[in-house]
């Protein structure tokens, strides 16, 4: 009896192992995409991407922020339709128009910004879009509960109550549920987008991944954490500026090789003036000591007149909270901020503009936090200084135009656009107007959150020029950029934010793209030595 | 169309781009449409009944429209800021009853008591605004509750039958003549000019447009958002109080339900005038046009002997049609056909 069972087990294991090894050995292409291209307006998100996922293997997708990873994922999951290129799934053309179609063909995704419905139960979320029905055809909550409990048990998550409301669970559990749901639906391809972003350990996840690859499912694994990628993935495809640069075996490629591929050849450093420390010594414009709260802890730095301070970080390391606290939108829980040496109570953006020499903020999201679409570009530019531009509280469109013109000139914005409704302008001109707004306030400190997000090359150059001349005139700039090349080009000093703390600081010539990539991925000491 | 514009934008950023913003704005079109409709209605009415469409008829419309033109300023400002004011019936009645009960026919008292009446109405608006902003009560619930509370308090205060007569100032306001013109028409014109200045040419007006478009973006841009959201409700309540006083002067007495018939028309006038019901868009001149159009329709319908019920049906239909016509897509389509 005992023996029999043991034999049975061994056979079973052997079969599973065989399936896995044959799948890997024969390298069955589960999904193969060639020449994918996707543009949003003038912005090309994906220029030319090829990727092949083999059945039963884990394939990593690597690249800097904005390299095109999310666009590729969106295309594979049917959330976006490519402009060109084609995908073959197990020998057949695969062109999903939406998530449901993709899932029907066995391609499921666990999204980084979870796609669960917060006010439904765990079981309902796991089972949607088809909930089990009772005898008279109505949705049966009992059967849903049972089916949900079975799924949870299959993935070692019995501790979660299937009837619990998803929105009330901690983030890590929600992420696990998102992953479990994707696994349940992934017959052929499983896409995991930053699956460990809110998981403390990887053991559970890797066990699940091994389970699905044993069944011959291909896994696409997207993560910024290289150590983790090396542990679970066999191959990697590197994306850079919307192009797939190479697909490599991770056993053969070194970390340096991969950074090199992610960043590209070193840009020819245009000789540019970096403010030397001697010049910047003196009073501080903005001084931050031990700032904390909203996921940040112990942030301290000084910003001096004439200095451009870059902030490098992966997405979601706390940069948004830092900017919002300094701009007076969110309250800091700990720490002190001083402007021009005077303690500053940053209670609102309006207040921040008026403390000392003033702090002006360029928000991250142009559409939702920046432009006021129905108003003219000129109104948008002069809004913070409206009372000053008015005569006895009366403001005419002409007064707005003449008040906006100097600032719009600094960002090389065509003055004719000022009288247009800002919502009718291109993204680049909207961004120019918003940068012009921060300049128009006459504040001596600018907080720029990704000042060139989603704008074309020409606009970028205009914005860089505006930042440089602002600093040259004694202004101080703190800016975050999702493009490291931008920080290399602009910053006199660069702080690296990792997990809510300043992990490293680079100065002058040490600000190099490869060193920054290593630093933002959390490779602390060695990266520093190399730099 | 917009896409083409944007692409052209990047390609011809500096060189051959000669587009201007001279195209007529959406708001101007709707204001003009409404004005033309008014004239057509008045002239057309002549064919139906010769008594209509005369100069005296125009005067009547302007005097009757006085109330709605004033109310639609406050309502328009609140809607522009992203809210809605359903407290008008209560505040109009408050203005009317305080004007007859407190002030009455004592002339000297009117000069210092009428401003107090307006201030009392302003306080009602202030309470609504604070409830909406601090307690985050949805605007329509907060203002409706205020209206019911105020109306009920007035019922108690008057024991069901308002006493007192209209102040002489209020009677003069509605029934006097200056230089051969009826006083209400002169006051109306001044009010419209000041209202237009306030909404379209003042710093505060710009702030209201900004918070109505996007509160978060306005806050980040340094707009004093709390103040800019409170003041419209205060102004609206004071406009309602003013209308209450004027109504008392017009009909020589207050009733407990004197404000009820003005709530929906005040919203209708603003919407017909081209404002977005979601805030951030619209002009006061448009609302004025909407108010006059509604009043014209009302007088024609009653002159033709239709019943009141029919009048409200027509009003409701007009608001629906206006909302449908003012949808963004329709305008875009019209523009693309023209090119």
From TrEMBL, chain A:
GO molecular function: ATP binding; ATP hydrolysis activity
Keywords associated with the record: ATP-binding, Cell membrane, Membrane, Nucleotide-binding, Repeat, Sugar transport, Translocase, Transport
Domain of life per record: Bacteria
PROSITE patterns: ABC_TRANSPORTER_1, ABC_TRANSPORTER_2
CDD domains: ABC_Carb_Monos_I, ABC_Carb_Monos_II
SMART domains tied to this protein: AAA (SM00382)
InterPro entries with a match to the protein in the record: AAA+_ATPase (IPR003593), ABC_carbohydrate_import_ATPase (IPR050107), ABC_transporter-like_ATP-bd (IPR003439), ABC_transporter-like_CS (IPR017871), P-loop_NTPase (IPR027417)
Gene3D superfamilies for the chain: P-loop containing nucleotide triphosphate hydrolases (3.40.50.300)
Domain ABC transporter: 31-266, 278-524
Pfam entry (one): ABC_tran
Family: Belongs to the ABC transporter superfamily.
Protein name listed in UniProt: Sugar ABC transporter ATP-binding protein
């Amino acid at each position: 009896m005992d023996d029999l069972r043991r034999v049975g087990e061994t056979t079973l294991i052997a079969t599973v192992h065989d399936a896995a090894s044959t799948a890997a050995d024969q390298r069955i292409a589960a999904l193969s995409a060639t020449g994918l291209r996707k543009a949003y307006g003038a912005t090309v998100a994906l220029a030319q991407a090829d990727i092949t996922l083999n059945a039963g293997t884990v394939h990593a997708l690597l690249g800097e922020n904005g390299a095109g990873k999310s666009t590729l994922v969106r295309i594979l999951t049917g959330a976006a339709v490519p402009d060109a290129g084609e995908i073959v799934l197990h020998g057949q053309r695969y062109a999903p128009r939406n998530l449901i179609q993709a899932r029907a063909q066995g391609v499921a995704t666990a999204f980084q910004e979870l796609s669960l419905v917060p006010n439904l139960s765990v079981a309902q979320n796991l089972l949607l879009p088809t909930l089990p029905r009772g005898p008279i055809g109505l949705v049966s909550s009992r059967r849903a509960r049972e089916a949900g409990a079975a799924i949870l048990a299959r993935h070692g998550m019995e501790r979660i109550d299937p009837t619990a409301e998803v929105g009330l669970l901690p983030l890590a559990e929600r992420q696990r549920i998102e992953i479990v749901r994707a696994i349940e639906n992934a017959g052929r391809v499983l896409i995991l987008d930053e699956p460990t972003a809110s998981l403390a350990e990887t053991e559970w996840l890797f066990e699940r991944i091994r389970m699905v690859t044993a069944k011959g499912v291909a896994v696409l694994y997207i993560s910024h954490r290289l150590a983790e990628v090396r542990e679970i993935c066999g191959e990697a495809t590197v994306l850079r500026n919307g192009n797939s640069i190479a697909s490599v075996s991770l056993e053969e490629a070194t970390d340096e090789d991969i950074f090199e591929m992610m960043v590209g050849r070193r840009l020819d450093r245009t000789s540019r003036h970096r403010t030397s420390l001697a010049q910047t010594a003196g009073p501080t414009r903005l001084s931050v000591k031990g700032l904390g709260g909203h996921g940040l802890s112990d942030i301290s730095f000084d910003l001096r007149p004439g200095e451009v301070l870059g902030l490098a970080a992966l997405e979601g390391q706390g940069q948004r909270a830092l900017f919002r606290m300094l701009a007076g939108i969110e309250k800091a829980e700990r720490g002190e901020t001083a402007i021009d040496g005077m303690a500053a109570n940053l209670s609102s953006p309006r207040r921040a503009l008026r403390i000392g020499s003033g702090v002006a903020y360029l928000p991250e999201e142009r559409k939702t936090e920046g432009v006021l679409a129905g108003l003219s570009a000129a109104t948008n530019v002069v809004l913070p200084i409206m009372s000053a531009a008015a005569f006895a509280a009366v403001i005419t469109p002409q007064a707005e135009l003449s008040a906006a013109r100097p600032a719009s000139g600094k960002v090389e914005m065509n003055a004719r656009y000022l009288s247009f409704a800002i919502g009718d302008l291109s993204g680049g001109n909207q961004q120019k107007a918003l940068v012009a707004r921060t300049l128009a306030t006459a504040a001596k400190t600018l907080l720029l959150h990704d000042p060139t997000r989603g704008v074309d090359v020409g606009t970028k150059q205009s914005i860089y020029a505006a930042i440089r001349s602002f600093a040259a005139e004694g202004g101080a700039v703190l800016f975050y950029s999702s493009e490291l090349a931008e920080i290399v080009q602009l910053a006199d000093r660069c702080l690296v934010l990792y997990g809510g703390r300043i992990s490293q600081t680079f100065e002058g010539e040490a600000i190099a793209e490869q060193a920054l990539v290593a630093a933002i991925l959390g490779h602390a000491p060695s990266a520093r030595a190399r730099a | 169309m917009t896409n083409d514009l944007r692409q052209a934008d990047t390609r011809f950023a500096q060189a051959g781009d000669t587009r201007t913003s001279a195209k007529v704005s959406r708001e101007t079109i709707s204001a003009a449409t409404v004005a033309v409709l008014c004239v057509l209605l008045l002239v057309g009415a002549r064919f139906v009944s010769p008594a209509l469409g005369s100069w005296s008829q125009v005067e009547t419309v302007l005097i009757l429209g006085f109330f709605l033109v004033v109310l639609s300023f406050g309502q328009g400002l609140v809607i522009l800021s992203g809210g809605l004011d359903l407290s008008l019936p209560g505040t109009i009645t408050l203005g009317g009853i305080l004007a007859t009960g407190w002030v009455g026919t004592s002339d000297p008292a009117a000069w210092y008591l009428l401003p107090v009446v307006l201030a009392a109405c302003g306080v009602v608006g202030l309470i609504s605004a604070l409830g909406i902003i601090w307690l985050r009560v949805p605007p329509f619930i907060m203002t409706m509750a205020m209206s019911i509370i105020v109306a009920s308090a007035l019922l108690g205060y008057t024991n069901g039958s308002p006493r007192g007569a209209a102040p002489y100032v209020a009677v003069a306001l509605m029934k006097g003549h200056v230089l051969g013109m009826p006083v209400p028409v002169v006051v109306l014109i001044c009010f419209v000019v000041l209202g237009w200045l306030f909404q379209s040419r003042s710093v505060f007006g710009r702030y209201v447009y900004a918070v109505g478009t996007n509160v978060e973006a306005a806050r980040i841009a340094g707009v004093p958002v709390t103040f800019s959201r409170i003041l419209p409700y205060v102004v609206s309540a004071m406009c309602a109080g003013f209308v209450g006083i004027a109504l008392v002067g017009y009909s020589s007495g207050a009733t407990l339900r004197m404000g009820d018939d003005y709530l929906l028309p005040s919203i209708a006038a603003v919407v017909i005038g081209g404002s977005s019901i979601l805030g951030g868009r619209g002009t006061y001149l448009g609302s004025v046009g909407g108010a006059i159009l509604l009043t014209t329709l009302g007088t024609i319908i009653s002159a033709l002997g239709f019943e009141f019920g029919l009048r409200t049906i027509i009003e409701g239909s007009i608001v629906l049609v206006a909302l449908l016509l003012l949808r963004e897509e329709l305008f875009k389509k019209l523009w693309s056909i023209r090119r």
